[in-house]
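In response to reviewer comment 3 from the previous cycle, which asked for concrete evidence that the modeling workflow produces usable outputs, we include below a single protein chain processed end to end. The sequence was submitted unchanged, and the resulting structure tokens are shown without manual editing.
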Amino acid sequence: MNTNPNSTPMILLSNITNLVSVKLDHNNYMLWKFQITSTLKAYKLLDVVDGSYTCPEMYTRDSNGAVTAFLNPEFTLWDTKDQALISMISATLSPSALALAIGQKSTKGVWDTLEKRFTSFSRSNVLGLKRDLNNIKKNNDSIHVYMQKLKECKDKLEAVGVFIEDEELLHIILDGLPTEFYPFCSAMRTRNEPISFEELLVLLLAEE
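The workflow returned the following structure tokens.
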């Protein structure tokens, strides 16, 4: 096993597509951030990204504190990691996200730019998806189509890091059913045992 700290970013760069399965775009910031943060923590590189490992002085100082013409080895190590991490993060970005990172000189600059842009978007996107989920009604759709719409919206929320509990989803589903399902809804609401989405789908198909 290679224990040279200088090689760590290069190893990570060569394996990044296997470790981070999504490319950042407007729909998946929370999922992307979770995957890439976990990877950076595992490789002990998050301190470069979040700025806690600050850039050392480029040149050494002599005994009097004056700057010399000699490169600081600590700066070289930091700069190698930083530039490798810029390349690594860039490999996980969609073209639109990559365009936002152009011009940034450090990993922290790239990270802060992406976080500022996508955090606000993710919040509004989550609110919109939650509103969509609560507004889905069966109307004239079949049970299969109705449940598929709900599942697609639920999956989109999960893709941005928001997970809907089975109990909450149950009430959303029941609220979207027409009046002829009211006896079924009453029975489900008084049920003591939890029920999964798949189990509820089977019961609804039998009720249809």
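The CA atoms of residues 41 and 156 lie 26 Å apart. We consider this sufficient to address the reviewer's concern, and the full set will be provided in the supplementary archive.
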